[in-house]
Design goal:
alpha/beta; 31% helix; 10-stranded mixed beta sheet
């Protein structure tokens, strides 16, 4: 039998939280003022969180708190105190991303339910298995998964699965986007994404010439809407449906939550007759939309995922202007009802979109408050509006007013049914017991002792009227049993007081039934210090322990050979296949391993940075092939890869996509058996200095053009891949080089891998060659050149320059670094950057 999934609604404010409850949410997720991925929402102060949790629990609604950002070492103590506070408050779970915080929570607060954020980029069953091993209870799966893949994960895992079903989509895999971070210093991994994906870009070729028209919103996705897919998603076995929208208005939360509540309930009442009503589709679109998409649930939708025309709410189509009158007057033929107070937007032929509020309406010369579909209405429009322009309704005053009433009215619409029993006898207090459907009870008794009635005696009817006065509470009287011993009297004020007492005691009983995690103060004190134990010693030959090694990430066998020939101490091979590059194959990998061994260097094959469940068989075969070839270590960039590599008995080197941001993340990885780790490129100089070098061997990226986005949507295929309906993309990515040009003229190079994933690169390459002495002094064991997208000759040239630089530092010739930096700069046409080394992220 299918289980009814939990409906989770967002709340960025107290009003939105009440709206979510009024809409029928089973759970609400929200964040405090720090450590959450929506730092720009209003969010909640600590005392407001306590009030919110009690408000939700009294109404039978679960409370989840987002603590889903990466944390610096300097923040971990505060974060732990915050988690302890949340545990004492009785929250039902905490949504997390940071591996170090997960380690800390599991050690100190073992009873606190942890939910893996979508920022952890879990897209396969092996990744879910790793989260279970880390002690998590639920995971928010990557939005890029299909229903087929979700079903496959469900069959392999007992962990609770949560998926987004409505709201905004990220263009890139969540947790793997550095665009906002690198171009503006505001990190999505730190909750401060500036959403540069919603800006216009122009697709250009290798010469900078536009190839698909002018500027478009090429990275701006439509909004997810799965109302019509609810039966299929339910059948996939997920445990929770999540609505995105902590930055949205409370009215939006109320409308969308109610739509999903009604649709889910209707399906379980009669699955065979399930349908989404036209008025429900209309309400969803009117609440907010950038056009709708089913996302990746039914497979990759291509251009159907994107909203190229505009990145903001488009509303619903209202009609066209058929005539212009005197002044600002215009005639509009309506496709939908229009009311005074509605917000509309004219899509003018020149100048974009012009919005206004409808203040006055005329039909046949008579002023009206509303006009139905099919009529021609006169109204005042901006002067730019012309005959033939389309008009969209972006704000429906009636829909929003109805939504507001649901959560602002004096009487709550969502009620908890209760039953009451009353006992009264002469000379005894009147007693009331109130109970709910779960068996929680509250009792109360009057101070006044009942007296024989002189005129008006108590009756069941009178008591029902008095006891049913529950309007400002979440309770609704469903039944009343009255036990009266003769004709007696009790003052109205006493009856009202005992009703309030019984209800308050019921409230206390309901709240006490929600479990609260015991917090051991002794465990919290010094917890971070206790966990930061030294790891196993770095396994270098005697006498070389403090000599850093030069590592190169190469994208092809030819590039790997060039790196080895130019002095690399370690080469990471592949991971993704670029353009038409050939794969190494077992014979090629064996040859490279042998070549590296002769030079005293390591060759470490890499798994793809991201892979989804439908690729699991291929990835398992890759790992087996690496082992057969004699590889001892594999570069792994996601949690699923760590699982498969360990299962094969090989060592894993954690790649930077695992977002190692603090020392406790290193402790977590060390206890998983990882051999070493590349740290996050978002760390600044001071944060790098704080990383302990005795937990794991550490690697820092000193050169390279990092992918700022990795996406399952290919812009090249969508814009240049042929006409709609063609079964096969003609692969323009194999015939030319392309980039996305922003408003400032900067061109971001793009490429695709063999799985048609789309990579957008920083045009400026990170270069820390002049900072090598500092990094060496800090004890980093490996200095990496991230060159996977580059041709073999360029890989060899850059590697040789860094070999010279490293040798110069180690031999005391630091003055050579300036000239070497100039040579590297000459190889980077778009220029160089020090990334976050000095500025860091907020």
């Amino acid at each position: 039998m299918q289980r009814k999934p939990e409906l989770m609604a967002p709340a960025g404010s107290k009003e939105a939280l009440r709206a979510a409850v009024a809409g029928g949410a089973d759970a609400v997720y929200f964040g405090g003022r720090r450590f959450n991925a929506r730092e720009f929402a209003e969010n909640f102060e600590p005392e407001e969180i306590e009030e919110a949790v009690d408000y939700l629990h009294e109404r039978g609604v679960r409370a989840y708190i987002t603590v889903n950002t990466l944390l610096a070492d300097s923040e971990l103590e505060q974060a732990l105190d915050y988690l302890a506070f949340l545990a004492r408050t009785g929250v039902d779970g905490v949504i997390v991303q940071d591996l170090g915080l997960i380690k800390l929570a599991r050690e100190v607060l073992p009873g606190l339910k942890l939910i893996g954020s979508t920022q952890m980029t879990v897209a396969n069953a092996a990744g879910v298995e790793m989260l279970a091993r880390l002690g998590l209870s639920r995971v928010v799966l990557a939005r890029e998964l299909s229903l087929h893949e979700i079903r496959a994960i469900r069959q392999k895992s007992a962990l609770e699965l949560e998926v987004f079903v409505h709201g905004a989509l990220c263009f890139a895999y969540s947790g793997q986007c550095l665009l906002s971070s690198m171009v503006g210093g505001r990190s999505g991994n730190r909750g401060r994404c500036a959403q540069p994906c919603r800006l216009p870009y122009t697709l250009v070729d290798a010469r900078g010439r536009p190839v698909a028209g002018g500027a478009e919103h090429l990275l701006s996705t439509r909004d997810l809407n799965t109302l019509a897919l609810l039966p299929q998603i339910i059948a996939s076995g997920v445990d929770a449906f999540k609505i995105e929208g902590r930055m949205r208005r409370p009215e939006y939360v109320a409308v969308v939550t109610r739509l999903y509540r009604r649709a889910i309930d209707r399906y379980f009442e009669d699955p065979g007759k399930f349908e989404i009503l036209p008025e429900e589709e209309e309400a969803a679109a009117q609440a907010f939309n950038r056009q709708f998409t089913a996302g990746y649930f039914l497979g990759n939708p291509g251009a159907g995922l994107m909203s190229y025309g505009r990145p903001s709410n488009r509303g619903v189509y209202l009609g066209r202007i058929v005539a212009r009158g005197p002044g600002l007057r215009a005639d509009l033929r309506l496709e939908r009802v229009l009311r005074r107070g509605d917000g509309i937007e004219v899509w003018v032929k020149q100048g974009g979109h012009v919005g206004t509020e409808v203040c006055r309406l005329w039909v046949d010369g008579r002023e009206v408050d509303e006009a139905p579909a099919g009529r021609v209405v006169a109204l005042e429009l901006p002067p730019q509006a012309r005959v033939g322009d389309r008009v969209f309704k972006t704000h429906d005053v009636r829909l929003m007013a109805e939504a507001r009433r649901a959560y602002t009215g004096p009487r709550e619409e969502r009620k908890v049914p209760v039953w009451m029993e009353v006992w009264a006898a002469p000379g005894r207090p009147l007693e009331i017991e109130v109970r709910d459907a779960e068996g929680h009870k509250g009792r109360g008794a009057t101070v006044f002792r009942a007296e024989p009635a002189r005129e008006h005696s108590l009756t069941p009817e009178f008591l029902e009227r008095q006891l049913n006065r529950l309007g400002n509470t979440p309770y609704e009287l469903q039944g009343l049993n009255v036990h009266l011993d003769g004709e007696i009297m009790v003052p109205f004020s006493e009856i009202n007081a005992v009703r309030r007492e019984a209800i308050e005691n019921l409230r206390s009983s309901r709240l006490s039934a929600w479990p609260r995690v015991e917090v051991d103060a002794a465990k919290i004190e010094g917890a971070i210090r206790r966990l930061l134990v030294a790891g196993r010693p770095v396994a270098f030959p005697s006498g070389t322990e403090n000599i850093p090694r030069l590592a190169v990430a190469a994208g092809s066998p030819a590039a790997a050979e060039a790196a080895l020939a130019s002095g690399a101490d370690r080469v990471y091979l592949g991971g993704e296949r670029w353009r038409q590059e050939r794969l190494a194959g077992e014979a090629g990998l064996e040859k490279l391993l042998e070549c590296g061994a002769k030079k005293g260097a390591e060759v470490i094959p890499a798994l793809p940075r991201i892979w989804q469940e439908d690729e699991a068989g291929r990835i398992e075969a890759m790992v087996a092939s690496f082992k057969d070839c004699g590889a001892a270590m594999v570069l792994a960039g996601n949690l699923g890869s760590l699982t498969l590599v360990a299962r094969a008995g090989l060592a894993a080197w954690a790649d930077y996509q695992l977002n190692v941001f603090n020392n406790l993340a290193l402790v977590q990885l060390a206890q998983l058996g990882v051999a070493g780790a590349a740290v996050s490129p978002e760390l600044n100089r001071g944060q790098l200095q704080n990383l302990r070098q005795d937990i794991l061997p550490l690697e820092v990226i000193v050169q390279g053009s990092l992918p700022l986005m990795v996406s399952a949507h290919c812009v090249l295929g969508a814009r240049l891949g042929g006409k709609a309906g063609e079964k096969k993309c003609p692969a323009p990515c194999r015939k030319n080089y392309f980039g996305l040009q922003d408003r400032l003229g900067l061109i971001f190079p793009v490429t695709t891998d063999e799985r048609c994933r789309f990579y957008l690169y920083n045009p400026k390459e990170i270069c820390l060659v002049e900072q090598l002495p500092d990094l060496i002094n800090r004890g980093f064991k490996f200095l990496r050149l991230e060159l996977r997208e580059k041709e073999a000759a360029l890989v060899g040239r850059i590697t040789s320059l860094y070999r010279r630089a490293l040798d110069a530092v180690l031999s005391g010739h630091k003055s050579d670094l300036e000239s070497i930096a100039a040579e590297i700069e000459a190889l980077a046409p778009a220029g160089l950057t020090r990334g976050h080394y000095y500025r860091g992220v907020i």
